[in-house]
Amino acid sequence: MRTILKLALCGATLFLVGVSFLALIETNAWWVRMTDFPRLQYLIALILLLGTLAVSVPVSRRLRLGLGALVLAAIAYNAVKIAPYLPTQDGVAESCSPEDRISILVANVKLGNRESGALLEMVRAREPDLLLALETNEWWEAELANLADGWPNEVSEITGSYFGMHLRSRLPLRETAAVYPVEQDAPAIFATVELPSGDTVRVFGIHPRPPHPDQSSTGRDAELMWAALEAREAESPVLLAGDLNAVPWERTIERMQRIGGFIDPRESLGFMPSYDAHSWWMSWPLDQVLHQRGLSVLSMEVLPGFGSDHYPVEAVLCHSPTPFDPPELRDDDLAEARTTIAAALEGQPDDR
């Protein structure tokens, strides 16, 4: 019995410690990059494991101390990763003129989901200025057309796959475009939104392909880098929204923030997981709203589910400068971004 307990504790420790640090490896292999997602789950499991080690008297004290040291190191690393996403409310603007407000509701509808009524009811009840719907197709296009009375302006792209996208707006849109940044079937949408005050906000809607078996993270990372470089050159403050298929603490998202000058509202408002709406244990924030310094956040929340595997996310922002600064650009950021984009365009895995 003692041997079985010892093997179980050693195996659990090596596994949890290993997956906690695996994403430090400089590679875009999908199975490595996916280990970055469940940081909160690692943290909970490691704390439980530490408690188990403390009461496992049949196992030698020396072994328990050694395993405990590894577990504590992994706990510290995961805690540092997710600590910025504890709610503080420090980054929330206290007031804003109604003419300077802009709100966006982001909803990955799930391609095969047919519960459109719940989403349409939610949109009409909450009255966001913008609705960004992802994973849309012809069926969803027809359903979203029911919002034309209140949200008459639209830019969309149907791909025939999981990466269709519709942006509907109650505010005027101009300079709209749907483009394919890295020659995959994952489009991005651009639009300049005119606020009642006459000021403008540049909106980017993106939904890059996720890393999965037989597909590295190169394409996803390249689209994120492309969006960051585009935002860097924008004349109006940029609001970037979508299902990024990446969590905020990943190195790619951190680099994206540095290049594009983006600020993440979750760093003030909390973890707010948006996926998976059908699972009690797969819980992490994939659907994101990022903004540049010319915008400040009034509120952001995850809304109730409507049949999709993603919860919708709504953010309300103000066209006024936030007092908070985005992370500073590092010396190698621009070169790394261009290398990643080049690798995706050439169809290379970019495994470094």
Describe this structure in words.
The protein has helices at 2-22, 30-33, 39-55, 61-82, 116-126, 138-144, 218-232, 251-260, 266-269, 333-345; strands spanning 101-108, 130-134, 153-157, 165-169, 173-179, 188-194, 200-206, 238-243, 287-291, 296-302, 313-318. It contains ten helices and eleven strands. It has 352 residues and is α+β, with helices and mostly antiparallel strands. It has a six-stranded mixed beta sheet, with no helix packed on it. Helix content is 35%, strand content 19%. The longest helix is centred in the first third of the chain and has 22 residues, at 61-82. The chain folds into two domains: 2-85, no CATH class; 98-344, Endonuclease/exonuclease/phosphatase (Deoxyribonuclease I, Chain A, 4-Layer Sandwich). The relative contact order is 0.15.
Structurally, how many domains make up the residues?
2
Compute the number of helices: 10
- The unreliable regions are none
CATH architecture of the largest domain: 4-Layer Sandwich
CATH class of the largest domain: Alpha Beta
Indicate the structural class. Answer: alpha+beta
CATH topology of the largest domain: Deoxyribonuclease I, Chain A
Mean pLDDT: 94
Shape: elongated
